[in-house]
Amino acid sequence: MEEENALIPMAEKSVMFYDDEIVTTLVAYNGQSQMYIPIRPICEHLGLSWTGQRERIHRDPVLDAEAKLVRLTRAGRGDPTALCLPLKFLNGWLFGINAARVKPELKEVVIRYQRECYEALYQAFQAETLQGAQSASQEITVSPSTTALEQIRDMGLAIAHLAEQQLEMEQRINARFDQTDARLNNAARLFASFDRRLGAVERRVEPAAVISDVQAAEISAKVKALAEALTAKDKSKNHYQSIFAELYRRFEVSSYKLIRQSQYQEVLVFLDHWRASFDDLDS
């Protein structure tokens, strides 16, 4: 282990164990946050030879593999790099100390460390460990369920966005109908018809372009009509949610205005077919 490879802690905490101060560190390693304990200060508290205990750690194949150099900010004077063990391996080292071979006045202290030190450090740092794992910028171990959860999150965000846009369009349309007379409504329908014809030309000229506001409003109206028809048949479900989810799944859009011209007719046909299949069940 070379000094330049020393781990940098995300957080440090001093824990008082009886009259001894023990520094604990939270380190991101191998995609996980782990608590590491500097061993030399504990050796000094127990009156043990640091050189002898360091050699013992390196002779043990398990402890040697787990021991890491950590650059401490609370090291004070001298080299801030400390040889540390993960907390879960601390007792593996402590129980290797023969209490019968230490100075008589330190025997009870060694036994106390062996019996209680691990639990005291774990309890003192547990809350910080959980908070650090959530807030620190570090790699996170990806479990097989992560991708599925991300898909659920993305679909949920898309449904929420579509719902907000649907509500906005319906409110805008209702306000417009409240403020205009039949003549203007008729003109709007004529304009929508013209826009559909223009859209056909746009699709031939620029198939990747997104649909217009009028085309988006037409899709919104079809979604509303379909949702109302489904709700009239079955009031136990949120049919808007089902429609938005299916639009997102089929066309990968989280907004009507992100629907491409090349998808426009396909979306209309999809909604019409859904409505037609529902009407066929009632006939």
TrEMBL record:
What InterPro entries does the annotation carry?
A: Antirepressor_Ant_N, ORF6C_dom, T_SNARE_dom
Domain T-SNARE coiled-coil homology, residue spans: 147-194
The family database entries (PROSITE patterns) matched by this protein are listed as: T_SNARE
Q: Which domain of life is it from?
A: Bacteria
Report what the protein is called: t-SNARE coiled-coil homology domain-containing protein
